[in-house]
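thoughts on both lines:
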Amino acid sequence: MDAARVEAIEWSFDALYAVTKVPVWFEELLTVFSNENRLIGHGVFFSLFSGRWLPEQQQWLNDLRAVSRRYQFDHVTEHFGFMTGRDFHHGAPLNIPYTPTILEIGRDRLKRMQEACSCPVGLENLAFSYSLEEVKKQGDFLDKLLGPVNGFMILDLHNLYCQAHNFNLSFEALISLYPLHRVREIHISGGSWEVSGAAPGKTVRRDTHDDAVPEEVFGYLDNAIDLCPSLKYVVLEQLGAGLDSDSSRAAFGHDFLRMDDLIKQKNETIAPLNSFLPEALQIPAQPPEDESLYRQQLELSQILETAVSFDGLMQALKASSLAHSAWQIESWDPAMIETAAQIAQKWKKR
């Protein structure tokens, strides 16, 4: 943006792990913001809740350790959930059951992240949920996950917008479910609408990051800033594929300036109460695993990625090991099951 109004940048660092050469200007950009302690890292592919500790996860940590020595991150974050796909590094982030075993796995992975990057670590709330009950439990589960590492939360307001629409909830009802004292960063973005075939007459809001920020999300932002006493960053997200025309680029610029103006109006009240600095960690040599969970994740991934019809998808789920289990598939919303398959199949093609 012009007039030097970008005060920090968020970098999805693991999206470039396989890239051997990046432009000089990009390295210079990262270096400038790193030197000013205004560079934050946002991971995508760690798959925090995979039931089995995978070689790809250890390599992800090794790469994070290396990139954290080259650039100074003010903090590093990951997505809540697990990645579909056989290796969980070429898939979609989807929800998991909220069980004590998965809580233990998530806490362990967060500690390993923090040890690798030597800075505060956090998690982003997930846009996708299978059921209203999952929506109601996510915030409390995040709080329990983050507590042992003094971790923080990215409050993605478009993700809340998706849940508000998909489960007929108000912003006030949703925001009250999350540990707002842990919010260090806020995301805003746009998305898309999908007409459901499984639930005629229903549209599903998708967090696709490919359009302008909805008016309602700016309203969320105006309210949320005052509710988050440790807020430090607000980030506008959009995929490059959504900036392929003059009009889309102009809309993005307009959204940034509107966000910036709103933040500047609030800045006098922002004084973060928690630095979320790392605490002394005790990390077991062997990461905790759950082989049954891992097999169920593989099974769910395979069902979602290969479904050719909704009826076939439902039959496969009912015949799977997920039936009558902690996954509670019997309470899943049909439109959200359909959406999960669409997400998984889209990511599989990447």
Observations:
- The mean pLDDT is 92.
- The radius of gyration is 20 Å.
- DSSP finds eleven helices and eleven strands in the chain.
